[in-house]
Amino acid sequence: MRVLPRFVSALLCVATVIHGQLLTAAPPPLVPPNQKPTTPPGPNEIRIGLLIPMDNQEIVRETGFVRSAGSIPIAIENVRQKHMLDAYNFTFYWKHDECDEAKAAGYTVEFIEQYQVHGILGPTCSGPAIQAGTIAAYYNVPIYFWGMVTAHALSEVGRFPTAMSLTADSLELAEAFMEIMRTYKWDRFAFIYMESVRQKCKYIRDDLNIVLEGASNTDINSAYSKKLENSSGEYVQKILEQAKSKARSRLRIGNSNLWPISVFAVCFDVDVDRRNFFLEVHDTNMDTEDYVYIMLDTRAYGFGQRAMKNGVVDSESFDPSYA
């Protein structure tokens, strides 16, 4: 059974908001990024703008155009099967914002004013999504976020009344983490993270601090917080040694104190950094029952899933250097 990716879900949301039905069984046209329409949209035409990366190697594996654009005919097929827009045709225009805030803002204005789009899919990173969402709110144009967008700020309806995100936001992840802390009656933890162009961990850090300030979390403390500059070597081992005593809680059941546990909340935007970090955890003998590691990040895949062949990861869909 095929599981539709978030990109398809975003397009289905556009169809739901616009209301109507699809006319033709032919695939919708994908217009090259530099080719602008010369006429206003017709009465039966729905124009969609795509903000999606193409060349940024840090993000194309998850949400790049080459892997994700194939979702468009799948979504159109679903719209047709549901008889949602039988009287309308779609035209898709795209721009490669590369998860750059300035490009995302400029292309959003261009889509709305020059292309006269009815809705926008993307950007796929939090910072650019905030920029584009603000502009879309001004023009009252629907905009849908997917991929690596996790910023909780985008859920503020008053600020982003025309926006919808199809991924769990970072505040929800932070609240889930606090619930785990309360369940096991742990009172402190260390937060170790790395940032990249994907920006997931940046927003998780910010929202974790917001949740910590909540009234229900007064007995839980972030005893140590560190942004890593790299993910391996003696540098990481020293940080682990510094953090382990400060992150030590006592696992409590009822009124009984059991053995001390060092709790780490970790966040890595990039798989290879996560792997390197846990290799250092192993080398410092901090992978025993005395330590707990909770990963506060989502995989945030769009259409770039890792395929399995005969029980092993397909090398064509997975960078073997991460293995």
UniProtKB/TrEMBL annotation:
User: Does the UniProt entry include the keyword Transmembrane?
Assistant: yes
Q: Which residues form the signal peptide?
A: 1-20
Could you state a single Gene Ontology molecular function term? peptide hormone binding
| Gene Ontology biological process | signal transduction
Q: Mind naming one GO cellular-component term on file for this protein?
A: membrane
Pfam families given in the database record: ANF_receptor (PF01094)
Q: Where in the cell is it found?
A: Membrane
Question: Among its keywords, does the record have S-adenosyl-L-methionine?
Answer: no
Any stretches that span the bilayer, and where are they? none
Q: What is this protein called?
A: Receptor ligand binding region domain-containing protein
Taxonomic lineage is: Eukaryota, Metazoa, Ecdysozoa, Nematoda, Chromadorea
